[in-house]
Amino acid sequence: MTFFKSAGLAAALTFAVATSALAAGPELNASSTGLAMQGYDPVAYFTLGEATKGSYKITVAHNDATYWFANEEHKAAFEENPESFLPEYGGYCAFGAAMGFKFDGDPQHWKIVDGELFLNLSQDIQERWSKDIPGFIQQADANWENIEGAEPASLQQ
């Protein structure tokens, strides 16, 4: 019986990953439940200078997604001006956007550039992105106009 419970859980997790961004639409990288940034606190990058997991008890719904916060002060700051804390490209990988794709942005691989939060897919990708951040941001900004509303899978065909 335990095998079937584990298999069922694995299937559910696979489905959740495969349907990422469906709840909030293709322009926002959120789980199938609408959780943005894998539950990481978007304000903490700016105030604490580190990726910090938020609490499911301290949340804000914004643009069809749910954001978690580490404390009430972060929640209040976000509610006052959410756009100043949201990751660029809807939380998708900044390097991926520069290449014309939408890959999950990993909240543990991030950088603030000129007051904007950027996420990358992995450490390796972030290292590649770091070699020409201004150039890749310029490319991603230009590409985003065309890919923002596209389903991530449709860009890989």
Task: Explain what this protein looks like in three dimensions.
By secondary structure, the chain is of the alpha+beta class. It folds into two domains: 1-86, no CATH class; 88-148, no CATH class. 37% of the residues lie in helices and 17% in strands. It contains six helices and four strands, in the order ααββααββαα. A two-stranded antiparallel ribbon has the order 1-2. A two-stranded antiparallel sheet has the order 3-4. Strand 3 and strand 4 form a beta hairpin. It is globular.
Q: Notable features of this structure?
A:
signal, globular, alpha+beta, 157 residues, 2 domains, two-stranded antiparallel sheet, single chain, YHS domain protein
Arithmetic mean of pLDDT: 87
What is the overall silhouette? Answer: globular
Largest sheet: 2 strands, antiparallel
The secondary structure category is alpha+beta
What is the number of beta strands?
A: 4
Number of domains: 2
Terminal-residue CA separation: 40 Å
Q: In terms of per-residue confidence, which ranges show pLDDT below 50 for 5 or more consecutive residues?
A: 1-23
In what range is the share of β-strand residues? Answer: 15-25%
Q: Give, in spatial order, the strands making up the sheet with the most strands.
A: 1-2
The number of distinct helices, counting runs of at least 4 residues, comes to: 6
The share of residues in helices is: 25-40%
Radius of gyration equals 16 Å
Oligomeric state as shown: single chain
Order of helices and strands: HHEEHHEEHH
